[in-house]
Amino acid sequence: MRRADRQSSDTLNVMDTLPFLLYFLLICSYPTNGHKPNILLIMADDLGIGDVGCFGNNTIRTPNIDRLAKEGVKLTHHIAAAPLCSPSRSAFLTGRYPIRTGMTGHSGYEVLMWNAASGGLPSNETTFAKILKQQGYSTGIIGKWHLGMNCESRNDFCHHPLNHGFDYFFGTPFTLVNDCEVTRPSELQLNIRQQLHFYAQIFAITVLTLLVIKLLHLIVIPWKLFIFAFLASIFFLYWYVALAFLPHWNCILMRNFDIVEQPMDLELKVSQIVEEAKAFITRNKNGPFLLFVSFLHIHTPHYTTKRFKGTSKHDLYGDNIEEMDWMVGEILEAIDKEGLVNNTFTYFTSDHGAYLEGMEGSPHLKGHNGIYRGGKGMGGLEGGIRVPGILRWPGILPTNTSVDTPTSLMDIFTTVTKLGGGTLPQDRIIDGKDLMPLVQGTVPNSEHEFMFHYCDDFLHAVRWHDTSSKTTWKVHYISPKFPEGANACYDSRFCSCTGQNVIYHISPLLFNLSNDPFEANPLPSDSVFYRQMLQKTQLAVAHHTSTLHPVPQQLYGLKNIWDPRLQPCCGSFPLCWCNK
Question: Which helix H or strand E contains 383, and what residues bound it?
């Protein structure tokens, strides 16, 4: 080789390694041991991407969330791993698809339904809290958990936050439901209770009648019939009691392992969550700390305090969002007050898209998912899984910028694990990617080439980000069946994931999401291009499926029914009540 050629080759080698050198320098610029960043994670419940000012809403006021976006980076193609609470939150905490952890639903059991169910986030799963605790972080979660409580007794706490790496927990182990507000109709429908009550009475009368006839020898009655009627009456009585005591048994407030309110007082929740978050920040201001603020807002029944009730243009729904934004501002002010803003990695998101059914028929009580079709519980439809995402870290991340390439809630697991000096588990597949190179601009695309979108344990859609053409494609295998002209399944609480109420696409639908974000115009299925895209996606699905292994299902059948042995109770069961 000639000397000039060698010099040219050396120059090319230096240029090839320059991006890696820059990335190495950026990594080295992160606060190191003794100066690790504090981590503040804020998650709303059921907040649509179209409900926030900085993501396009101009009728709901969200100045504090908008401030975060101005001071940081907006993730405009940010995707939840599931369109419902329990599976999405499990993926957020573990960096793994819910299908890997057994946190997918089946046959109508889509989320955890009871505090006294034995299902929940498995104890052998590793959360980012568990990793950061090992790195010297003080870890806390304030607000909603909804990932289980107990396994075999009411005090084993196998699924509790304190057994998943958190040092401190203040909030509800379940979620907010209509039953938690006495003036609202039941989340599980009052008519179900009435029907159960009626049938329980019928069976009880039947059993007594059969018993009298049997004892008086009026008619020969097989004991099997008597036993069957008795067991049936017990069954109906069991469910009637479970539903009747639901507000006392599901709507509870805990501090660590102790129940402090049963049932909880919704009027106090806003001030309690804000003050608990502030107190945690003050207690741990010398850091490092990890604080996960998991809001009850804006889940139904949209309970809003008097200060914000009637102040928005969208009835209770808008009031609830504006109250939540105020809460965000109070927490950010505590970070500012303690002088921690430059050493705090802050993240804001929602667990999935807005809820479009069950909004009591008012157009002002419906969530808004922007230009995207569908919403909460709707499998792979964009409105149910595309969520607002914001990152802020002054001096480390750019300000007032957007990242439009696909990212995932699962990426937070990998990102904060690395920021906190931890190492990723090597004994399992981690689906989350490190966001820092992407948001700092040292790489043009995230590491997510394909994303897989499940409804319960059924694969509904696959997203492919083709970096060569800078285009995102999406294939739909199954879609919910809407009433004609509708954008939701208004005749039920949630859309179905399988069965007669979904559409199985014999020829899967292919959309160019980059040009058609509403998923309105599928590409023709008779073209060569369609076949090439479908083949590429099917190969990715086959590879993904090969990495899945059988695990205990946490939301199926007996794992997700009310078990009186597991019922958290403050006082004497079943009349559980306390206010500490």
Answer: helix 382-385
Q: What does the DSSP assignment read for 19-56?
A: HHHHHHHHHHHS--TTSPPEEEEEEESS--GGGSGGGT
Please check whether residue 410 is in contact with residue 431, taking contact to mean a CB–CB distance below 8 angstroms: yes
- Residues in a beta bridge with 473: 464, 512
Q: Tokens 């889509």 label which residue?
A: 110
pLDDT at 200: 61
- pLDDT tens digits along 181-234: 877 766 655 445 555 556 566 666 777 777 777 677 777 767 676 677 667 666
CB 295 within 8 A of CB 43: yes
Task: Verify whether residue 85 is a known catalytic residue.
Answer: yes
Structure confidence at residue 120 (pLDDT): 98
Residue 7: the pLDDT is 44
Contact status, residue 202 vs residue 194, Cβ threshold 8 Å:
no
**Residue of 54, 77, 78, 85 marked catalytic:** 85
What does the block give as tokens for 434?
A: 């490190």
Class of the CATH domain delimited by 38-176+251-566: alpha beta
End-to-end CA distance of the chain: 82
Residue 201 has a pLDDT of: 66
Residue 544 and residue 21: Cα distance in Å, rounded? Answer: 32
Q: How many CA atoms lie within 13 A of 167 on its CB side?
A: 15
Q: How does DSSP classify residue 511?
A: E
Q: What is the structure's pLDDT at 202?
A: 67
- Choose among 238, 201, 207: nearest CA to 221: 207
Residues of the chain with pLDDT under 50: 1-29, 31-34, 190-191
Q: Return the sign of the alpha-carbon dihedral for residues 251, 256, 261, 264.
A: negative
- DSSP category for residue 365: G
pLDDT of residue 18: 45
Is residue 497 annotated as part of the catalytic site, yes or no?
no
Task: Give me the catalytic one of 54, 77, 78, 146.
Answer: 146
Nearest-angstrom CA–CA distance, 453 and 246: 32
Q: How far is CA 262 from CA 190, 342, 577, in A?
A: 21, 39, 5
In one letter, which amino acid is 118? S
Q: Would you kindly state where each structural domain of the chain is located, as residue ranges? A: 38-176+251-566
Q: Is the Cβ–Cβ distance between 37 and 289 less than 8 Å?
A: no
The full length of the chain comes to 580
